[in-house]
């Protein structure tokens, strides 16, 4: 099984507002950058979307280390999702899970791979995290400019 590193980030101009996501896939000497945007979204949705798109880009099942600066993303997929699924996608406060559509999509992508999730501090010198931030912010700005 291939060992891949996936670095992700999301950005939003306003929250909600125009948003962008970015992901970098690393496999051995290979590096692939990808990004996208949405016209009206939130930062948290873009964080989840970056992970979905990065995992979706992998054509075969892989061991994937996902690196994110979003505690929301890391905690959501490694801890909270178990209870959400058990409780029919309701929170402890008996309210529907926010961003449920994306969490379900991410859960489906995670099932295809063996994933480990690593949190890194944003804007703290992690080269690929900084690059993802740059790409996601640019995607959000371009979405904003196209209005």
Q: Which key phrases capture this entry?
A:
single chain, 147 residues, alpha/beta, 5-stranded mixed beta sheet, 5 strands, globular
What does this structure look like?
The protein is 41% helix and 32% strand. It is α/β, with parallel strands linked by helices and 147 residues long. It has a five-stranded mixed β-sheet with strand order 3-2-1-4-5, with helices on both faces. A hairpin with a 4-residue loop joins strand 1 and strand 2. The radius of gyration is 15 Å and the shape is globular.
Mean pLDDT, to the nearest integer, reads: 96
Q: What does the radius of gyration come to?
A: 15 Å
Distance between the termini: 43 Å
Shape: globular
Count of extended strands: 5
Residues in helix, %? 40-55%
Largest sheet at a glance?
A: 5 strands, mixed
> How many H/I helical runs?
4
- Strand adjacency order, main sheet: 3-2-1-4-5
Class based on secondary structure composition and strand pairing: alpha/beta
Strand fraction: 25-35%
* Run of helices and strands: EEEHEHHEH
Question: Which segments are poorly predicted (pLDDT under 50) over 5 or more consecutive residues?
Answer: none
């Amino acid at each position: 099984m291939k060992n891949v590193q996936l670095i992700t980030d999301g950005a939003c101009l306003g929250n909600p507002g125009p948003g962008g996501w970015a992901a970098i896939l690393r496999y051995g000497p290979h590096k692939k950058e990808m990004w996208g945007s949405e016209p009206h979204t939130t930062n948290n949705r873009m964080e989840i979307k970056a992970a979905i798109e990065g995992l979706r880009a992998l054509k075969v099942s892989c061991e994937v280390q996902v690196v994110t600066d979003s505690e929301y993303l890391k905690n959501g997929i490694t801890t909270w999702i178990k209870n959400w699924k058990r409780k029919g996608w309701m929170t402890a406060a008996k309210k529907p899970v926010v961003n449920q559509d994306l969490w379900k999509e991410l859960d489906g992508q995670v099932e295809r791979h063996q994933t480990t999730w690593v949190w890194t501090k944003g804007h703290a010198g992690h080269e690929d995290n900084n690059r993802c931030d740059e790409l996601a912010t640019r995607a959000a700005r371009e979405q904003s400019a196209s209005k």
